[in-house]
Amino acid sequence: MLTIKRVPTVVSNFQEESPEALGCGRNCLGKCCVPVSKLPLYAFKRDGSDSIKGEGAVQSEESNQVCFLNDLLLGQWENRMSQGLFRYDVTTCETKVIPGDYGFIAQLNEGRHLKKRPTEFRVDRVLQPFDEKKFNFTKVGQEEVLFRFEEGEDDETKYFPNAPVGQNSKSPSVIAINVSPIEYGHVLLIPRVLDCLPQRIDHESFLLALHMADEAANPFFRLGYNSLGAFATINHLHFQAYYLSVPFPVEKVPTQKIITVKNVPDNGVIVSKLLNYPVRGLVFEGGKTMKDLSDAVASSCICLQDNNIPYNILISDCGKRVFLFPQCYAEKQALGEVNQELLDTQVNPAVWEISGHMVLKRRKDYEDASEDYAWRLLAEVSLSKERFEEVKAYILEAAGLQEACVEVANVGNEEQEEAPFEAPGPTPTPHFPQDCLVLQ
């Protein structure tokens, strides 16, 4: 079992007082209630987009009084758990690291299978209009909200425990609990919740997600995104995030830098492709500013959306690395091309599974979990080599890049090829401290 670190709880404004019902009386996240409400506000400093915050970065004196990850996010998450707002206790779910070279992580989560909200839209279209009649986040109660997360008005990070939203202000972006959690601290980032945006990436929202990873300042807290057709279950723009104190397998595999011919001024963004991993994908990192990295990834995602190509995103390493996975599992599933043994597990490979955290729904599958099973499942997610090359060209063009004829390996042997079905062990890359251990 993985050890969960308990953290202090910050008293929430919901405990401090029980205000009279306002708006529609349900205290929801809709336009009827939010403008007349007071919600905690975490305002990150305005100049945060000028540079990517690394380890040891200096924060303002005021921001040091409240730790974003421990005191606010995880502390408030535990507060909501004590209120009984989750559909099950995810901290009791069994978790193990699967023996093998990759270190895939398996979790038995029977509650999520039985109590998770079903999908209410087509799975063959990446772009679909928002439908207010179907479930969306304006229908949840404000008790599920931890705090607003928005850019501040100056160069200091500030936290306001009870900030009025206001009738004429911009639609707030909020961090709320995921009531069907996968892991400890599982939350949702919902950009501009009142704008009722469908599940599609835009530049502003993706930059907000990078800011959240940056503010967390912990490599074991990651954000993920699933497009429609890649196992998003709600067509209302949102990112997921949670804390898991072990490196994901995909974060450890070698990559190969793609040498590009620049069509635009160099912004410092580096694009690489994964090697020796069952799902073909790209890694974006670097950039002279956080916005440079954000714009490159967001433009790539917009291209995939416009071409009806489902995809998943993992935001890793405090926002400094972004993994992009075009995928085709749902398409193969609809065409009857997925092995029945894999279908019987009822595992939908979304961003967390693709990254190596396998959320299993049946005890038998959990007890029998092996590296071979994880590899076979994820291999069904991946585009073929030929199709991936086509999609990679779309992505690079969207990011303002054009691939040159030569590629250089970032780590390992320069002659490495993509892994065959029987995968060799990955070559570790130094993105995590070497003394990080899984506590038994």
CATH topology: HIT family, subunit A
Largest sheet: 13 strands, mixed
Count of spatially separate domains = 1
CATH superfamily: ATP adenylyltransferase
CATH architecture: 2-Layer Sandwich
Specify the helix fraction band: 10-25%
* CATH class term: Alpha Beta
**Percent range for β-strand residues:** 15-25%
Got a strand count? 16
What count of helical segments does DSSP give? 11
Helix and strand sequence = HEHEEHEEEEHEEEEEHEEHHHEHHHE
Summarize the structure.
With 440 residues, the chain is of the alpha+beta class. 23% of the residues lie in helices and 21% in strands.
Report on the architecture of this protein.
By secondary structure, this protein is an alpha+beta fold. The protein has one domain (29-52, 63-409): HIT family, subunit A (2-Layer Sandwich). The chain is 23% helix and 21% strand. It contains eleven helices and 16 strands. The strands form two sheets. It has a 13-stranded mixed sheet with strand order 5-1-4-6-7-9-8-13-14-12-11-10-16. The chain has a three-stranded mixed sheet with strand order 2-3-15. A hairpin with a 7-residue loop joins strand 2 (95-97) and strand 3. Helix 4 (203-216) crosses helix 5 and helix 5 (290-306) crosses helix 11 (385-398). 44% of the residues are buried. Residues 1-19, 48-64, 412-417, 419-424 and 426-440 have low confidence and may be disordered. Pfam families: GDPGP1_C (PF26216), GDPGP1_N (PF26217). This is GDP-D-glucose phosphorylase 1. One of its GO terms (cellular component) is cytoplasm. Its main location: cytoplasm. It catalyses: GDP-alpha-D-glucose + phosphate = alpha-D-glucose 1-phosphate + GDP + H(+).
